[in-house]
Input
Amino acid sequence: MPGLWCRQVSEELLEAEADWQYLLSHIRELVQDLLPQQRLDRFLARLNRALDGPLLDERKLRLVPDTLRLCPPAIHAGVLEAVLTALLKDCALEILYENAKGERGPALIHPQAMVQRGPTPYLFALKNDETAPVRTYALHRMIRARARLDEAGRKAAGFDLDQVITSGQVDFGRGAVIDLELRLRGYAVDVLRACPITPAQFIEDEPAGSPFVARVRVPETGALLRWLLGLGDNVEVVAPEGLRRVMGEQLVRAAGHYARLGGIGEDVGERMGP
Output
């Protein structure tokens, strides 16, 4: 009996260790998309030193993305550390910032929160003596930054990070919840059967030879639209009508880029329906 108990405990520990290794692999994959290579190398080296025993490395476990992943932007030396310090210490931040037009200028900003969208981090902050609005600063546009530990940061009245995200600033919006109905074909059928959009997804098969139908309540966001467009002709948005029309307009305009190939895009509007 003691031998059986020991064996069961060992198996449980092994399973826990395997789960932990799997989690670490996901962490490494996530960080790889977010950090420049130099920072990634330092992170992985520190992770290896902090853990005992061998790790499941890329030779035995690989996580392959199903979407195109952009490389993270290059952030000037010291900028990220200064921004995080200012957030942690609730102090002002002195920066030299270059806008999208290439114009540079100094500013004393008061950080409120930071959000990372994909590989790009953004800082929400008040500028100089302004009490509003809370502006958005991309970290890779900061030429230099210094946390002003001697000057407390000012708080923006009523600032709430959840509200900022929901409102759609920097394309983070969650959007209003919609009743989404899709008609799918090809590989998209297998994708949504195995990986639902949400746990509450309702699916049904139409008559033989007809496409697969999925119904789900989801927030209408830019990410949802981009995902649907990425499915190409393997998906048709049946409802809601507003999203269906947006999809049709996007696809018609996209087809126009290829009209010179001959016969492409000429009857897209007819096939999409009203």
